[in-house]
From TrEMBL:
Protein name from the UniProt record: Putative NADH dehydrogenase/NAD(P)H nitroreductase
GO molecular function per UniProt: oxidoreductase activity
PANTHER family given in the database record: MALONIC SEMIALDEHYDE REDUCTASE RUTE-RELATED
Gene3D superfamilies: NADH Oxidase (3.40.109.10)
Residues annotated as domain Nitroreductase: 25-183
Length: 205
């Protein structure tokens, strides 16, 4: 039997319904239903997120899930006024963080000799790597949440120093952005804001 042609090895694209859920019909959630989001679902969410690629398998992202009213109340003083209601009303608030000392885990995550010491000796490189790849993993969180049927609302209006002092002081992690998670309240999707076209945002060289 002959080997399969290259075309036969190309995975099929996701179906239209999947693309609609992830991209075309997805909207930032503004109103949340009362349906709870359990810890088991958050674990399933992370199990998807951790599989996304990062440079050298550094995986620097860390996530803090605020699920109780008490923890959300502690976040309140750090939020900008416009984010108070839409963020605090989310069933779960995820703090998307990164670990500046991610390289301490590299002996388990990457078999390349000396990689841990290379990052440890260059603070600029390690900080840049942690922020870039942690942001990438935060984007995976958004898409994985949508894939699991959750609504998502990212937020960037907050006092990062206050968040770190309140929630991250013992970990040494750094906050990047915040994501509200939960099931959206049923109703018509709001109109999508304009996006730039291919010719405006892309170069093919």
């Amino acid at each position: 039997m002959s080997d399969p042609s290259p075309e036969q090895n190309i995975p099929e694209a996701l179906d239209e319904a999947s693309l609609d859920r992830l991209f075309r019909e997805a909207r930032t959630t503004r109103r949340w239903s009362s349906r709870p989001v359990g810890t088991a679902l958050l674990a399933s969410l992370y199990d998807l997120v951790k599989l996304g690629p990062t440079s050298g398998n550094t995986t620097p992202a860390r996530f803090v899930f605020l699920t109780s009213d008490d923890m959300k109340a502690r976040l309140r003083p750090a939020l900008s006024q416009g984010n108070l209601e839409p963020c605090l009303s989310a069933p779960v608030i995820a703090l998307v963080c990164h670990d500046a000392l991610f390289f301490e885990h590299l002996p388990r995550l990457n078999s390349e000799p000396g990689l841990r010491d290379w990052f440890a000796a260059d603070v600029g490189l390690s900080d840049e790597t942690a922020f870039r790849n942690g942001t990438l993993q935060g984007a995976y969180l958004i898409m994985a949440a949508r894939a699991l049927g959750l609504g998502v609302a990212p937020f960037s209006g907050f006092d990062s120093f206050a968040v770190e002092e309140t929630f991250l002081e013992e970990t040494g992690w750094r906050i990047n952005f915040i994501v509200g998670l939960g099931y959206p309240e049923e109703g018509p999707s709001p109109p999508r804001a304009m996006r730039l076209g291919f010719d405006e945002a892309c170069l093919v060289l």
